[in-house]
Design a protein that fits this description.
39% of the residues lie in helices and 19% in strands. The chain has 160 residues and is α+β, with helices and mostly antiparallel strands.
Length: 160
Amino acid sequence: MSLSELYQEVILDHGKNPRNLREMPDATHVAEGYNPLCGDQIKVFLRVAGDVVEDASFLGRGCAISQASASMMTQAIKGQTLAKAEELFENFRDAVTTQADGGCDHSSEPTFEDAFQDESLGVLSCLTGVRNYPNRIKCAVLAWHAMHSALHEGSKVTTE
């Protein structure tokens, strides 16, 4: 299996079977995100205790990329410190919006073990290929901006 096929499978799996897709009644931080270009909507719930994101979930509707990104984000930030969650936000946003070579473009086929070698992003690297499709970048970063807003006491963000 090629790396780009593996990445596509991970995105499709998270898009069809999102993890942490649930309301969180005991959330301490909540924010909504809306992408008026395509209609994606995400509501991010975080339960923060001290300096740690104890739990993360989301509700939303939209394309497979927005749902997969929200699913993967909630998994990535759960159990992390607030500083680490912010670092992941910055790294992910930069990786998705920069014009460097895409994460799925390799001259030789890596093994499964090599697939997630970007230590700063791990499995989130799967989503960096959207930078080659400018209209899809907003889909991938919507949940991340909502999470960032929630951590900073915001309530709504838009990709407009």
